[in-house]
């Protein structure tokens, strides 16, 4: 990396990371999105906004979250040492609260009364419902019926926090359809509401804005890892659906001499077609107002996708990830359901940590890569905890023997 040109990923003024991103909007949303862009640029350098967000992170969220050396898991695996960035210890149980509190604060600044969003695994929905309660705002969460059934505990949490959960019953009834539904709701009420996208996807400025709010993960992790070891990790890993937790971690290490791995869900395997490995099998397309790698049908429409992790079953991916793939800076790899399951139980039994199924994808690849390396250290973003997944795990995987 020391001999390479410094990586500056953007976006440009039109919201493009290289040739990906932008904002492809119906005419009636052009003005509301312009207002969001203007408001975000105003508050991004406002000392009072930054001070309030830092206070929220420290006193409400519980930041900084620690970096933890998984010694027993590393020893059992017999390779490089595994370190975990413990985003599962955030209030609400995942990294999603990092950008949801920022989006809620932005909504207050803009004078909005309502937050509208989609959710897959439910972590974004819970985090946004929490932000709405904190700031005294209404909250409407759109969620596919399949994910409602898989993530019942998070549905209950959202409702306890005062959010209206809107079941989405068309299409595959998962994350892509939840985004479609939420976008339509925002289109009907953009004067009073703000659409709080749950990842580094969607029209500009959301890929930039969510990344910026998530940067705290990488900034903390880089400093903590050096404090623990005196070095930088040899590699870092994070799961990639839309890609918010990954961009949060990756952003701090892009110009460091370490490998970066984005881990996609291979599901039941490419031969079955039941996966959501967008960067591996997708091609350029447009979805939900932005350009990215996209899993597509022959007619160019978004293809059906599948993952055991509800938060990863999205046919598109963040535009900055697409740009980083083209630059060759990040290696995008895959993890099957079976590999994810094995890593899930390994962490439970070795370290007393129950991870989110999404996070177990990143861990599974890190364990495989650690064995190949034989020595050194890998840092994994443990993006969420697995409380939300217990019903699904017990029903489908049992208790791990």
What's the helix and strand layout?
Elements: E1 16-17, E2 20-21, H1 27-44, H2 47-61, E3 67-69, H3 71-77, E4 81-86, H4 96-110, E5 114-119, H5 123-135, E6 138-144, H6 145-150, H7 152-160, E7 164-168, H8 175-188, E8 193-195, H9 206-229, E9 235-239, H10 244-250, E10 259-267, H11 278-281, E11 283-287, E12 290-294, H12 319-327, E13 331-336, H13 337-351, H14 357-373, E14 377-382, H15 390-397
Parallel strand pairs: 4-14, 5-6, 5-8, 6-7, 9-10, 9-14, 10-13
Antiparallel strand pairs: 1-2, 3-4, 11-12
Describe this structure in words.
The chain is α/β, with parallel strands linked by helices. It is 45% helix and 17% strand. The chain has 15 helices and 14 strands. The protein has a six-stranded mixed β-sheet with strand order 3-4-14-9-10-13, with helices on both faces. A four-stranded parallel β-sheet has the order 7-6-5-8, with helices on both faces. Strands 1-2 form a two-stranded antiparallel ribbon. α3 crosses α13, α4 runs parallel beside α5 and α5 packs parallel to α7.
Keywords:
single chain, 401 residues, alpha/beta, Rossmann fold, 2 domains, six-stranded mixed sheet, 15 helices, 14 strands
């Amino acid at each position: 990396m020391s001999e390479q040109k410094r990586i500056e990923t953007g976006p440009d003024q039109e919201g493009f990371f290289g040739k990906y991103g932008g904002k492809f909007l119906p005419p009636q949303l052009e003005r509301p999105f312009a207002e969001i862009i203007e408001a975000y640029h105003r508050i991004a350098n406002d000392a009072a906004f930054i001070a309030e967000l830092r206070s929220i992170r420290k006193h409400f969220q519980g930041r900084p979250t620690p970096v933890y050396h998984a010694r027993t898991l590393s020893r059992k695996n017999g390779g490089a040492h595994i370190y975990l960035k413990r985003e599962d210890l955030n209030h609400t149980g995942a990294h999603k609260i990092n950008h949801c509190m920022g989006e809620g604060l932005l909504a207050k600044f803009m004078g909005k009364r309502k937050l509208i969003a989609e959710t897959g695994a439910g972590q974004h929905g819970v985090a946004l419902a929490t932000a709405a309660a904190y700031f005294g705002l209404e909250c409407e969460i759109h969620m596919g019926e399949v994910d409602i059934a898989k993530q019942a505990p998070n549905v209950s949490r959202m409702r306890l926090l005062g959010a209206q959960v809107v079941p989405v019953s068309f299409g595959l009834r998962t994350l892509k359809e939840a985004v479609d539904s939420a976008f339509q709701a925002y289109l009907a009420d953009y004067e009073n509401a703000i659409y709080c996208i749950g990842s580094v996807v969607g029209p500009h400025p959301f890929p930039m804005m969510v990344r910026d709010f998530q940067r705290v993960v990488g900034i903390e992790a880089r400093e903590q890892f050096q404090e623990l070891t005196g070095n930088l990790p040899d590699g870092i890993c994070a799961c990639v659906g839309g890609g918010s937790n990954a961009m949060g971690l990756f952003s701090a290490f892009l110009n460091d001499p370490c490998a970066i791995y984005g881990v996609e869900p291979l599901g039941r395997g490419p031969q079955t077609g039941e996966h959501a490995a967008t960067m591996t099998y997708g091609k350029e397309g447009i979805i939900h107002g932005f350009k990215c790698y996209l899993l597509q049908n022959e007619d160019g429409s978004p293809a059906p996708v599948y993952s055991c992790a509800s938060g990863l079953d999205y046919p598109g991916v963040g535009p900055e990830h697409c740009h980083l793939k083209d630059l060759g800076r990040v290696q995008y790899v895959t993890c099957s359901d079976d590999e994810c399951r094995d890593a899930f139980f390994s962490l439970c039994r070795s370290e007393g940590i129950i991870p989110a199924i999404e996070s177990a994808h990143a861990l599974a690849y890190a364990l495989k890569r650690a064995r190949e390396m034989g020595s050194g250290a890998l840092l994994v973003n443990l993006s969420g905890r697995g409380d939300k997944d217990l019903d699904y795990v017990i029903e489908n995987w049992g208790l791990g023997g």
